[in-house]
Amino acid sequence: MENTRIYIVGHGQEIRLIRAGHRAQAMNHVAKALINVKVATQNELVDALQKGVSVENAVDSDQLTLVE
């Protein structure tokens, strides 16, 4: 594979060797096996908020803009 490197991706004591084109690609490859990401339904949002789960911003607050 051209233009790739082997990255060590670890969590705690576990490490994996991942061949990827860049760091984010290696991390994303491992993350897919560990976590699920999807858009929350209205019911899931309400349930989580009632349980005290806070909404976190993945971008800096100065980058947040409303799109109309």
Q: Write down the domain tally.
A: 1
* Mean pLDDT rating: 89
In terms of DSSP E residues, the strand content is: 15-25%
Helix fraction bin = 25-40%
Task: Characterize the overall form.
Answer: elongated
Description:
With 68 residues, this protein is of the alpha+beta class. It has one domain (5-54). It is 31% helix and 21% strand. It has helices at 23-34, 42-50; strands at residues 5-11, 14-20. It has a two-stranded antiparallel sheet. The radius of gyration is 17 Å and the shape is elongated.
Keywords for this structure?
two-stranded antiparallel ribbon, about 20% strand, elongated
Short summary:
The chain is 31% helix and 21% strand. The protein has 68 residues and is an alpha+beta fold.
Topology:
Layout: E1 5-11, E2 14-20, H1 23-34, H2 42-50
Antiparallel strand pairs: 1-2
